Structures are given as structure tokens and as C-alpha cells.
Amino acid sequence: MTDSCKLRGSEWTLDDLVSIEHVCSRHAANYGLDTFPNQMEVITSEQMLDSYISSGLPVNYAHWSFGKHYLIENAKYRSGQNSLAYEIVINTNPCIAFLMEDNSLAMQALVIPHACFGHNSFSKGNYLFRQWTQPDAILDYMLFARNYIAECEERYGFDKVEQTLDALHALRDQGLDKYKRPSKLDSRKERAEQAKRLFVAQETMRQAEYYSVVPHAPEAAATAAAFPLNPEENLLYFLEKHAPRLEPWQRELARIVRKIAQYFYPQRQTQVMNEGWATFWHHRLINDMYDAGQIDQGILLECLHSHTNVIRQREYSGLNPYALGFAAWNEIKRVCESPTDEDREYLPGIAGKDWLETFHDTMHNYRDESFLLQFLTPKLVRDFKLMNIFTREGLDHWTVTETAGAASFKEIRSHLAAAYRLESSIPEISAVRYARDTDRKLVLHHQSYDGKMLMKAQAEQTLKQLRWLWGFDVSLETVDPGGQIIKTY
Amino acid sequence: MTSVIVDRRTQKGKSTANRQRLLKRLDGALRAQIGKLVARHKLQDAVPAEVTIDRKDATEPRLILDPASGSSGRIIPGNDKYRIGDKITNSSSEGQGRGNGQGAGDGDTDEDDTFRFVLSRTEYLSLLFDDLELPALIKKDLLEIDENRFRRGGVVRYGNPGSVCVTRTFKASIGRRLAAEAQHAEALEEAEAALIVARKTGDRVLMETAECALAEVSRRSGETPFLDPIDLRHRSLVEVQSPCTAAVMFCLMDVSSSMDETRKDLAKRFFMLLHLFLTRKYKKVDIVFIRHTDAAQEVDEETFFTGTQAGSTKVLSALAKMNEIIASRYPSTSYNIFGAQASDGDSFGGDSTESSAYLRSELLPLSRYFVYAEVGNNPLQGSTTLWSAYRAIESDRFNMASVNARNEVYPALAKLFHREP
Predict the structure, then answer these.
(1) Residue A449 included in any domain
(2) Which end of chain B has fewer CB atoms at under 10 Å, N or C?
């Protein structure tokens, strides 16, 4: 398509999508957006639901829970409770963007810059994605995982595999390395090393079995008393390496579940930034396309209409990450270009700087928590009319502690940033004691903050699953910040 | 940088494996519902109703924080009425909005307690068949609904690559090449002649064009493809409909007060299975519902299974009614007539023997098959008056069985199924 050719109407062809991508890539280059090559895939609504349940991964292993989530999403969609996403994008190389076939031409013109340039450049540039994910290898790894699990089902029976996966899924949130970078995914290496890993694991187990019955030197018990030396937060990793009763293939399954959970770790920490970034750029690129005469006014207006819906923030409800993110990025641009005295006071680092340079630097080096802590402006807090409310167990009401205003800006900023810490929604659980030489009991600690406890019924069910995996007794203790055990499950 | 576009819309059924595993997982819960489904489901409905599954049957526990415990803070947007220190009660809408979209876990806790979905025909029937303990072979037979057969239909130009007919394709290719080469030879001659003419004139421009034309023609003559898409020939299959005939199924049931819900449920399954069998075999199956106490009535399905009537029992009235309907609407020359009777076996006086005689002399000659099921735990079962009277009938078009439990429904019809080649 030449630049003079103009898209109009609502029908589109595959060629139109390629044209949009082409045109966008030229505009994006003006802003220095660095992206993976795009692979746009046109899918039906049914396939969109499929993508939902595997978080966008085009390949996944089979498990009943995915079937359940499909049915739930499907029912919500059919009853009109939820509309489907217009696109879903996954950080692979090439970057796969799923576009719904039901989208009008204008919607496609909106979602292509959003997904193929916004999200794509974010996942290529952001430090979390760079450090924690391997966009070149994930699809191969998923394929390996699917085939391996299918093979296990055949070899060890559906029921056994299902039960193992059920138990592992229950611990999915506790399968994250939060500080240590994961090793590179490589399905070929994975296959080669798998055999070796299993052999070593089995050997270790066998020795442990042997020493448990054969009398041996007492000093072994003394060294074993403190194991693990440091608490291990990654329970799935701990199970894979140390669970006394697991079959080798079950250890491999633990590894697969852990690797996949780990892959989504960056996504969960950059929701506001990532969506805001993509929204900022689709808004920008659409206007550029209109200015260059590549789309007509009808398409522009329809795009802006959808854009407005996307960034709508309801009063007195949850914060919309699109709205917050879009506003935050726009604020950065404003502070760079025309800072007020207030901005100079709170954001001296970026006031008056080159906005594009600041954008790239910010996108590369921050996650939601640090992003909000660093770049939230007093104006945004006022525009969003934010307030902070507080309650305590036993109270039947919330108390307003801060409202938008100069006096409480810093408090609101730190509360908001803290809300986007992963630890505020996922309990911190770690393995602290494993009595290797006696009854093989495993003790877990839940570190409680602000008096937060675990949901009792769910915790007990999860513990049951964990005991099954472990093969021996497992106890879970909630510990307050002072180190006192306040509850045992 | 190269970008690609892929049309994925043709790839379907990615979630099939997950669905199968889910159904297997929910097996117990679904089985518990099958009774309700049968009650709701009409005999002629193609797609069964929705099932509702309690989330408890498919929980995925996680370690999640209890939002009610400890102290919590929350950032709320859009505030233009509260000041610092104001109190907001938990019931007001402000308190209920989720903090920041990062709610607990996968939200299993705050949604409905149930989820609903529709079973496909196959899924529903296999559940039903398991419930009825149907033999595997029969199950497979009944689940197959495709009645059309394919027959070879000669050779056509278009088709899928799997059906290419190699010999015919090559024949077409030889023909095309012969024709093309002949044409090329002609063109070559013409071009050569033109060149000679041009040389005679001595005009350089004319000579050059003629030489170019000749070169072009000779280049082309070497380029006739060995195989060309237009040569392709495919074997074709045409769909032929198997000769279909119509059938009518008479459901006869005693609805006197002694027929309670359990018995009616058994009877329904009995009718259902026969109906499935018939729809498998015949394109068009009509159902006639006749209920009777001491007088017979033709009713709709709803009334048939749910309505009750007071009165004594007279089987003969129903048989006579069936005969009357056959005479008026379903001539036995154009319909395959099937009769299915369900009763608890009570009948009084001479009714049993009269009925038996009527059935043998009047109805059986008209019918393809007549089956009688004595349902429910009657203490006299196997020796009721109707049973003893029917036992005297000797015909390979007649069968009878006592059905006390769901797994006995099939044996009552087994003889019918086994006549199937």
C-alpha cells in the first residue's frame, strides 16, 4: 500500500491488516520503537477463548481445569456479561498477536498499533522481560511440555498425571524465583538434560533411603538438622529437588508448571505500565496515520470512541490499569515538555528533559511499583481524585485516611505503589524445615504482614494436595513479623 | 523486519482434550444430574438441556490471603464527597469495589457457586447409556447419526489433493502438451518466415523485431510445463441418501395411580432408548403417546409423563386406540409400526386375556415389533395377570421383559437390537 491509499469502511481483508502494520511500522520508527517481527494471527471468538485459558500461549498441555475455565469464560461471553478482548499478545519472538475476526477495520487499526507496536516494544525492551523470559524459546518449550505430559498420560495413566498436575497447580503461585534469574529455556537442552537430572535425583533418593535404614555416623544428623539452610520460597523447585516420594516424571512435571508460572512473572508486575504504554502508542500512531492521510475520518472517530471506552475510569471502583497507565505516561510527557513548579519539586529528574528519551529509559528500567513511586504526579492524583481508605479486622467500616491534596500526596503515592507489589496479593510462603533424617516432615512458613491470614478452607485443601505430593506430613505455620507462630494449619 | 499474517480461523477444537478431561473429572456430578436431565429432556429433542455444576466439584485450591483478615488499605478513584476521617460502611458500594484489580487468586471465591454448560448430543447420550449400562457395541451404533453413504462418481476437475487420479491427470497432461507443442511449431514457422521476409527488405529495424519475435517464440516452445494445474483430475465421491422410510412409535402407558414417579422414569428411559434406536434406523419417526386407565387417550409428551388420572386399568382400551390411530393416520403399508407398552402389570377381570388376544390377532400383524415392559418393583412381578396373559403370545415380533432398575431397560430391548445385522 502506498501512503496515498486510504483505508475506509468497516470491512477488511488480510492485505489491509498487512498494510496497517506496514504503515504503523514506519510511524513507529520515527519514535524509535524497537520491536520483534510481528506475526498477526486472525482468530475466531472461540479461539480467543482458547487463548484466554492458556494466557495467550498458543500451545499448552491438556488439563481439566483449562476446560473448566473455558466453559466459565464461554458462559460469561455468551450471556453478554463480558465482551472478549479485541486482541491478545504474547511475548515471543516473532511477537504473536491474535486479532479477532469480528473486529471492524477501525478496531484492527486500533489493535495493531496497540499490540504489535505497544506491547511488542515493551516486552522487547523492559528489563523484567529481558531478564526473566526467553521469547525465542518459550514456544518450543511449551511444545516439549505438551508432548511430555501427553507421553506421561499414556505411560503412567491419566488419573495419576491429573492428580499430580492438580496438586502442582495448587502451588503455582509458590513456584516463583523472585530474586534469582531463571536459567535459559531451551527445549533441546531440556530434553538432553532431562535424563541426567532424573538419574541424579533418583540416585540421591536411593542414597537417602539407604542411609535411613543403615546405621551411620552421628555427625550426619547434626549437619542435616538445619535443612534447608535458608528458607526456600520456590516450593515447586523445592519439591522437584527434595520431595522424597516423587517419581522422576512427577519431578519433571513440577519443573514444567514452575517454568510456565515463571514466564508470566514479568506480566504480572508490569500491568499498568505495559497497558499504559500500549494505549499511549496506539493513540499516537492512529493520529499519525490520520495526519498522513492513511485512514479516513470515520476510522479515526471509531478508534477514538473505543479508545475512550478503554481508558474509562469509573468512580469508586477498582483502578483501571489502562486509564492509570495512559494518564501516567501522558503525565511524564507533560512534565518533560512543560513542567510546573510543583512538577519540578516532585519530579526534578525528568522535568524539562527530552520526553522520548525519558519514555524509553522509563520503559526499559521500571516495573509498576517503582514506576508509580517514581513518576506519579500530584496532578494525576488530583485528576483521578484518589483517596486512601483503611480498615481493620472486626471493623464494619472503612476510614478515609488520605484524599487528593498536596499534604497527602506522598502517602497516596506510596500506598498506590505498594498495591502493585506482587507480595500484596500473593502470600509469602517458604519451606523452612525438612526433617530429612527423622520423620521427613516438612514445615512451611507463611510470613504474615498487617495481620493478614490465609483463607482457611483453601489453605487446608492445598495442604492436602501438598501432603500427597510430599508423601509425609507437611505443616503450614503463619508467622507474624516478630517471628511468633500465630496459626498452624 | 518482516511481519507475517496467519489465518488461524480454520484450526478448531483446540479445547477438546481439556473438555474431555473435565467431563471425566465431573463424571460423578454429571451422573447425579442425569436423572433430572432425563426428566427435562423430551424424546424428540435433538440437543439436551444445560447442566449446572457446583464449583465444589471442580475446585482448584490455592494459598490466598483472606481479604477480611488483618488491616487493609485501598486506593479509590473518583472521590468527590469524602474528607479525611470520614467513615464508609462496608455495605456501601465504595467499599466493595476491588482495590486495584489485583484481587485474590483466580477469583474462584467471589464468583457464582455454580457454572453451567451445554452437553453435546454425543456427550449426553453416552452419559445416558452409561446410566443404562448399554453394551459398548450398541452405544457406538446408536451414536452414529450419519446415514448418508458415499458412492464413486467418476472423475472431476476439482477436488482435494488426496483424491488425485494419477492416470487421468497424466493423460490430460499428454494431450495438453501435444496441443501446445503443435501450436508452438506453427508459431515458430510463422516467425521464421517473417524473419526471411524482413531480411529480404533489408530494413534493420524490421529485422531486429523479427529476430526478437523468433527468439521469444523458440524460448516459449521449450517452456511447456510437464504438468499444469489444469491437467489435474480427481476421483469424485457423491453422497447418496440411503432409502429412508418412515416409522411410527406408539408409546402406551398405564397412568393409573399405581404408576409412581420411579416407574414413570423407568418407562421414559425405556421409550427413549427405543426412540433412539428408531431414529438411527429411520429418517422420520413419529411418536404417538397413548395413556390409559380404563379409557385411553392420545396426549402430548408433557401430559403423558407428568399427568395422572384416577381410574382402574383397562389395557384393551389403549390397544384399541392404537389400532384406531393406525387405521386413520398410519397405514401399515407406508409406515413401520413399533409399539412399546409400559405398565405395572395390573389389570382386572378378563382384560388381560382379551388384550393378549387382541394384540396377537389385530396389532401384531400390522406391527414390525411390539415390546412390553413391566416396570417397577411389583411384588407380583413376573406373575401379574397381564404378564401371564402376554406370555402366551408366541411371535418373533413380540418381546416382553420386567424392568426394575435402569440397567434392565436395555435387556428389554436387546432382542430388537440384535436383529440388527
Answers:
(1) yes
(2) C
- Indicate the burial class of A210 (C-beta count within 10 angstroms; 0-12, 13-18, 19 or more): exposed
Surface-to-core class of residue A58, CB atoms within 10 Å of its CB (0-12 exposed, 13-18 middle, 19+ buried): buried
Residues A375 and A404 in one domain: yes
Q: Is residue A333 part of a domain?
A: no
Query: Å from B254 to nearest chain A CA?
Result: 41
B246-419 CATH choice from 3.40.50.410, 3.30.390.50, 3.90.1150.10, 3.40.50.300: 3.40.50.410
Nearest to A458 among B62, B68, B80 (CB): B62
Minimum-distance CB partner of A452 among B21, B69, B87: B69
E-strand spans in A422-484? Answer: 428-434, 442-447, 474-479
- Place B343 in a pLDDT band, splitting at 50, 70 and 90: confident
**Claim to verify: residue A93 and residue A40 sit in the same structural domain:** yes
Are A23 and A114 in the same domain? yes
Quick: pLDDT tens for B374-383: 887 666 666 7
Q: Cα separation of A38 and A58, whole Å?
A: 15
Q: Is residue A373 situated within a structural domain? A: yes
Which of chain B's residues have a Cβ under 8 Å away from the Cβ of A47? Answer: 8-9, 11-12, 14
> pLDDT, tens digit, for every residue of B61-78?
888 888 888 888 888 898
Tell me which of A423, A447, A469 is where a domain ends: A423
- Test A408 with B79 for CB contact under 8 angstroms: no
| Residues B208-231 pLDDT 10s | 888 888 888 888 877 888 898 889
Last residue of some domain: A380, A404, A423?
Answer: A423
pLDDT of residue B105 exceeding 50, the answer is no
For chain B, the average pLDDT equals: 79
* Residues of chain B contacting residue A399, judged by C-beta atoms under 8 Å apart: 85-88
The DSSP annotation for A351-372 comes to TTS-HHHHHHHHHHH--HHHHH
What's the whole-model pTM score?
Answer: 0.72
A418 and A437 both lie in a single domain:
no
**Residue A32 placed within a domain:** yes
Residue A220: predicted pLDDT? 47
Nearest beta carbon to residue B75 from set A321, A388, A452: A388
State residue B124's pLDDT score.
Answer: 78
Select the residue from B10, B18, B93 to test the A interface by mutation, using most A Cβ atoms within 10 A. Answer: B18
**Nearest by CB: A397 against B2, B4, B89:** B89
Report ipTM for this prediction: 0.79
Residue A137 DSSP one-character state: T
Residue B107 pLDDT class (50, 70, 90 cuts): very low
CB contact under 8 A, B62 and A67: no
Tell me the helix, strand and coil percentages in chain A, rounded to 5: 55, 10, 30
Q: Is a pLDDT exceeding 70 seen at residue B197?
A: yes
Task: With cut-offs at 50, 70 and 90, classify the pLDDT of residue B109.
Answer: very low
Spans in chain A with pLDDT lower than 50:
1-4, 219-224
**Confidence check: pLDDT of B104 > 70:** no
Contacts of A22 in chain B (CB under 8 A): 3
Task: Note whether B56 contacts A: Cβ–Cβ < 8 A.
Answer: no
Residues A114 and A18 in one domain: yes
Based on the fold, state whether residues A414 and A456 are members of the same structural domain.
no
> How many structural domains are present in chain A?
3
Instruction: Report which of residues B103 and B280 the model is more confident about.
Output: B280
Let me know whether A399 and A450 are in one domain.
Answer: no
Q: Do A17 and B19 touch (CB under 8 A)?
A: no
Q: Note whether B294 and B315 are within 8 A (CB).
A: no
CB contact under 8 A, B4 and A314: no
Per-residue CA distances from B79 to A324, A404, B87, B124, B281 (Å): 15, 9, 13, 52, 69
Range of the domain at A67: 14-126+270-304
Using one digit for the tens of pLDDT, what is the confidence trace for A146-159? 999 999 999 999 89
Q: How close does chain B come to A465, measured CA to CA in Å?
A: 9
Is B84 within 8 Å of A408 when comparing Cβ atoms?
Answer: yes
CA nearest to A21, candidates A42, A2, A40 = A40
Chain A interface includes B66 (CB < 8 A): yes
Q: Cβ separation of B22 and A424 shorter than 8 Å? A: no
